[in-house]
Design a protein that fits this description.
Elements (H helix, E strand, L loop, with lengths): L2 H18 L7 E4 L2 H16 L5 E5 L4 H12 L3 E5 L9 H7 L4 E7 L11 H9 L6 E5 L18 E5 L10 E5 L25 H14 L3 H22 L3 E4 L10 E6 L4 H10 L19 H5 L4 H5 L1 E5 L6 H21 L7
Parallel strand pairs: 2-3, 2-4, 4-5, 5-6
Antiparallel strand pairs: 1-7, 6-7, 8-9, 9-10
Helix pairs in contact: 1-6, 2-3, 7-11, 8-11
Length: 353
């Protein structure tokens, strides 16, 4: 296959993704994953636009990639405002209004929270930012949101956005960055632009093709797929709450959370122990966020939402897809009930009477 033919294929793959978020192929840039897209967007934008201002707004519950980038620039002389969140994981909009200054150039958020599934009110945020007397760019990590909730970058006022293939059953090691026309970002990786001028070097073309195919499958009947996932997650939650006492849902109920995420705290026991025992029974779950559970530390998102150490350590995140079934959920909840009771019987915190 010749170079021009490959270029045409790449443009076709870009269009497949662009069509799902109401943009054009020229505004899609393939990356080696969501982390790379986040870094290119944030570092590229701030390094290029620092002459206009050096104030960033983010929240304490955002994805680790985003917080690490904000901390990097804070150490480099930028000012960062960290918004608080309420018990359900919604960022404080009043604090956002008060935080905006003439020096503010970038607002960063995680569209669907990676730990508790909260969907941030991005259009309300856009309206607040639009009242400033200068342009404040909006950078969104949509890796948990893409393929799970509708995204229209224009109505939502998004300027930069990351997505990841493996979150929608695509291959590992590939993602994409949406960059609105007119938003200027500088290069953060120098090298030969084989596929893209921002993600220099090689990107696996077969992985890009797999990404595009996963997008086609996810969006072939988007409404049907997402309604099925939400029905399954509602069924899972009601099954847990009816069969296992002393549990607490983390994040909002219903349509204010993404359809695929159910995060529950189980009193008196460690989430890590539940995860290990579920895994031994062939059932895969995570403790809070896979990116925040290293070192057995209390999950920072749950702590920021006002949970105590016990509730944070005792949380489990269930992630559902259109390929799951109610039969699988029944098996998982029955096994979970056994495991929770066994661990509680061993726990010195649990009153068995």
């Amino acid at each position: 296959m010749g170079g021009s033919s490959i270029s045409e294929e790449i443009e076709g793959f870009k269009k497949i993704i662009a069509d799902t978020i109401n943009t054009t192929a020229s505004e899609i840039h393939f990356t080696t994953g969501g982390t790379s897209a986040n870094n290119i967007a944030i570092k590229g934008f701030l390094s290029e636009n620092a002459g206009r201002g050096t104030h960033i707004i983010i929240s304490v519950i955002d994805y680790p990639d985003l917080l690490a980038n904000a901390a990097f620039f804070e150490k480099s002389g930028f000012t960062v405002t960290y918004l608080q969140a309420d018990r359900d994981g919604f960022v404080d909009l009043k604090q956002l209004q008060q935080a905006i200054t003439s020096d503010t150039i970038l607002f960063i958020t995680t569209l669907v929270n990676h730990t508790v599934g909260t969907i941030q009110p991005i259009e309300k945020i856009k309206n607040i930012l639009s009242k400033a007397d200068h342009k404040i760019a909006v950078m969104v990590d949509a890796c948990e949101a893409y393929g799970r909730i509708p995204i229209d970058v224009n109505s939502m006022g998004i300027d930069l956005m990351s997505i990841s293939a493996h979150k929608i059953h695509g291959p590992q090691g590939v993602g994409a960055l949406y960059k609105r026309k007119g938003i200027v970002i500088g290069p953060i990786k120098h090298g030969v632009a084989r596929i893209d001028s921002f993600e220099t070097g090689g990107i696996n073309i077969a992985s890009i093709a797999g990404f595009a195919k996963a997008v086609q499958l996810a969006f072939s009947d988007f409404k049907k797929h997402t309604e099925k996932i939400r029905e399954l997650s509602d069924y899972l939650l009601s099954s847990i709450e009816s069969k296992i006492p002393d549990t607490m849902l983390n994040g909002p109920r219903g349509l204010l959370r993404a359809p695929h995420n159910i995060n529950v705290s189980f009193d008196y026991i460690e989430g890590e122990a539940i995860m290990v025992m579920m895994d031994l029974n062939g059932i895969s779950v995570a403790t809070g966020s896979a990116c925040a559970s290293q070192g057995l530390k209390a999950n920072y998102v749950l702590m920021a939402l006002g949970r105590n150490h016990e509730q944070s350590h005792g949380s489990i995140k269930f992630t559902l897809s259109r390929y799951n079934t109610k039969t699988e959920i029944n098996i998982a909840v029955d096994k979970l009930k056994e495991i929770v009771q066994e661990l509680r019987n061993r726990s010195p915190l649990y009153n068995k009477e």
